[in-house]
Amino acid sequence: MLLSLGATLQNPALTQSQLTNIIKHLKSPQNQNSPMSQFFLGIIYHSRLNDHKTAIYYYQQAHTLNPKFAHATFALAELTLTQNFVKAETLLLEHIFDQFTYDPYTNKTYFQPLQTLRAFTILAPYYPLAIQQDAHKILEHPQLQKAEQLSQRIITLVTKESLPANRSPLHIEAIKLAHQTLARIYNKIDKGTAEPSFNHYAQALTYHTNNLSTEERKRHNEIDKSLLEGAASAINYSIPHPKTTHPLDWSTVVNRTYPSPSPTTHQTHHPNQKSKKIHLGYLSPDFNMNAVSLFVTALLKHHSPNDFKVFCYYARPECDQYTKMMMQWSHIEWHHITYQTDEQVYKLMTHTHKLDILVDLISLGAANRLSLIAKQPAPIIINYLGYPNKCYHKAVTHRIVDHITDPEEYENPKGEQLIRLPRCFINFTLFEIVPIPQIRTLPHALDEIRIGIFNKSAKYSTPLLKTWLNILDKNPRIVFYIKQDERMHHDPTAYQAVADLFPPNRIKPLPVLDNLTAFYEQFNQVEFTIDTFPYSGTTTTCNSLYMGVPVVTIYDPKNPHAANVSASILKHTQEPETFITSSLEEYEQRILQLANDLPCKTLQDREERRSRFLQAMDPKAFMRDYEAALQEIYQNK
Fold first, then answer.
1. Can the peptide bond before residue 534 be classed as cis, meaning omega within 30 degrees of 0?
2. pLDDT tens, position by position, 420-472
């Protein structure tokens, strides 16, 4: 009777009277010591009566009576983890994972691989919390050590102990999550050696099956989106770009994860025929106090109203003072789309606004709307600014770069077409509501040589950290003034983890400041700043030059876009080649030379650097080239 009770409880026609009789039977003395009876009582109180507290009690009873009864343990774990009543990881790890488990249908105990896989899929989503929360001494964290061991076991279980033809959706889900867990751990341990992290993301994305139910397909797709976002980030932290054992076909993975509708269900575009103006849209979650906004001011404020009708689609619910500032520009039509479905926004763009061009300012970055992009809401879709690489989705037609960030001779022919502006591909403009910060110089009688590191700590690669330590070792007067990022600001252990990498008294933290003018004043405390590698700065480099402070960077035309952005900014600002090196070795030597012969000794030096930078970032001159590029793309479509 007990084995057939599961089907009975799922019957929607089950009456309250019948349910009461079932509960009475399960609570009878002869069933008090039955794990199955206690398990079914848990199900009733959980799914039928919505009494989670009582359900947990009966699931715990079932587990206590038979610790090898996996069904009860899974039910307990899923409910307690969701409710945050107790931590059930130990129950899963000790009694389910890689252990013999009880099968109530055969009344036998034996090793059931699927139980181990299911245990891992329940636990895996909780490991990132530990990875995020424990920035300090991560290798010593017992939960992460356990996560690594379990993940490696899952990979072995799936790849070596199961035949591909016999792999169920649970096999695929478990190995995806195992690779993702390892990728996140390795990414946290060693940001500079991105290849192990990227390889795990990439290998996870190679596992795919079409034999899925609707619910499984939805769950697998969400996992793939997370994996793709991780891979898209990790690839920018390594030089050269990582090569995987199972090469990642970006186009296949991106288009599979964000599939375009079939031609029969896809709405046709309604071409803009009533106006000679190009209908141009911008899509972003970052029209606020965000680095991206410092580069879209020119795009939004200085568009020619005679040639372009501009629409902005803001994909974030919060509006700050900078959002409100941009919304005051009357020639732009604003739409908040955070809570709108892709289909609603698609119809708005195609039917109402009849877009000719859509500029996606986030692409593969966090909080993207690639599911919307996949519908191709404009005949021309441009990947720009927010993500420093190609998108590779077939709906995306172009990407804007320049001749320094992406030289023609080293271009990857796959993916969207590159459009190279004849100047720097970005235009930095300080928010007009922010007072222009004053430039000052340091006193020359200081006992220390202050060098600024203003990029976020995620860009501190291991090879770069070794170089910085060499610099400190060779010149005892150098002190690094390190700008704290948000992670360090909110988590003291995160800053301590960085501080522990350096000798005592050789670094000084610069705090996070909400006031932008006060933030810019921090650049007045250093002689020059040094760039990160392989993921160079963009906003940070512009901020430094805006304050007249030199930046030392690394440039090699063979390196990918993310490594070459600072060099493009410096070259277009007419900075001396002294500040542009070709390798980490030359970078180290140049910094030591500059520390001995400070490059920016007078106020005039700094003011002239700011003047050159502002001239290079003239918004009206930039818009002439940018709009000409858009018009050429439109005319050649």
1. yes
2. 999 999 999 988 788 888 999 887 767 899 999 999 988 988 899 999 999 99
What's the burial of 102, exposed, middle or buried (CB within 10 Å: 0-12/13-18/19+)?
Answer: buried
The span from the CA of 176 to the CA of 121, in Å, is 9
Q: Is 280 in contact with 630 (CB distance < 8 Å)?
A: yes
Q: Which two tokens stand for residue 17?
A: 């009277």
> Taking the alpha carbons of 608, 610, 611, 616 in that order, is the dihedral positive or negative?
positive
SS3 310: strand
Closest CA to 78 of 42, 33, 130, 37: 42
Q: Contact at 8 Å (CB) between 238 and 195?
A: yes
Phi, psi of 251 (to 5 degrees): -60, -45
Number of neighbouring beta carbons within 10 Å of residue 71? 24
Q: Which are the contacts of 391, defined by CB distance < 8 A and separation ≥ 6?
A: 254, 360, 363, 364, 370, 373, 383, 399, 415, 416
Pairing of strands 108-111, 100-103: antiparallel
Q: What is the largest CA-CA distance in the chain?
A: 92
Cα 196 to Cα 142: distance, rounded to the nearest angstrom: 21
Taking the C-alpha atoms of residue 461 and residue 440, their distance in angstroms, rounded to an integer, is 31
Q: Which two tokens stand for residue 128?
A: 């990132």
Amino acid identity, position 376: Q
- Token representation of residue 272: 């803009």
Closest by alpha carbon to 196, among 242, 144, 249, 153?
A: 242
Nearest to 250 by CA among 266, 227, 283: 227
The number of angstroms, rounded, from the C-alpha of 274 to the middle of its chain's C-alpha atoms is: 40
Question: Please, which residues have CB within 8 angstroms of residue 569's CB and are 6 or more apart in sequence?
Answer: 424, 426, 538, 541, 542, 545, 616
- pLDDT, tens digit (0-9, with 9 covering 90-100), for 97-129: 888 888 887 888 888 888 888 888 887 776 665
What is the rounded distance in angstroms from the CA atom of residue 492 to the CA atom of residue 486? 11
Specify which residues 451 forms β-bridges with: 480, 528
The answer to whether residues 350 and 376 touch, using CB atoms and an 8 Å cutoff, is: no
Reduced to 3 states (helix: H, G, I; strand: E, B; else coil), residue 519 is helix
Round to whole Å and give the CA distance between 633 and 621: 19
Candidates 545, 616, 534, 531; CA nearest to 580 is: 531
Q: Which pLDDT score, from 0 to 100, does residue 457 have?
A: 87
Q: Are strands 332-336 and 308-314 parallel, antiparallel or unpaired?
A: parallel
Rg of the chain, C-alpha, whole Å: 29
pLDDT in tens, 384-428: 999 999 999 999 999 999 999 999 999 888 999 999 999 999 999
Sheet holding 580-581, edge to edge: 507-510, 478-483, 449-453, 528-530, 551-554, 580-581
Sign of CA dihedral 80, 84, 85, 86: positive
In the three-class reduction of DSSP (H, G, I as helix; E, B as strand; rest coil), residue 355 is classed as coil
Cα separations in angstroms, 164 against 167, 385, 502, 574, 613: 5, 41, 48, 58, 58
Distance of CA 280 to the CA centre of its chain: 27
| Measured distance CA(320)–CA(329) in Å, rounded | 15
Q: Residue 484 in contact with residue 509, Cβ under 8 Å?
A: yes
Q: What is the sign, positive or negative, of the torsion defined by CA atoms of 577, 581, 582, 585? A: positive
Q: Which residue has the tokens 């000798």?
A: 503
Q: What are phi and psi of 276, to 5 degrees?
A: -80, -10
Which of 547, 550, 492 is CA-nearest to residue 522?
547
Helices 113-123 and 142-159 pack at an angle, to 10 degrees, of 140
Tokens coding 568: 């493009």
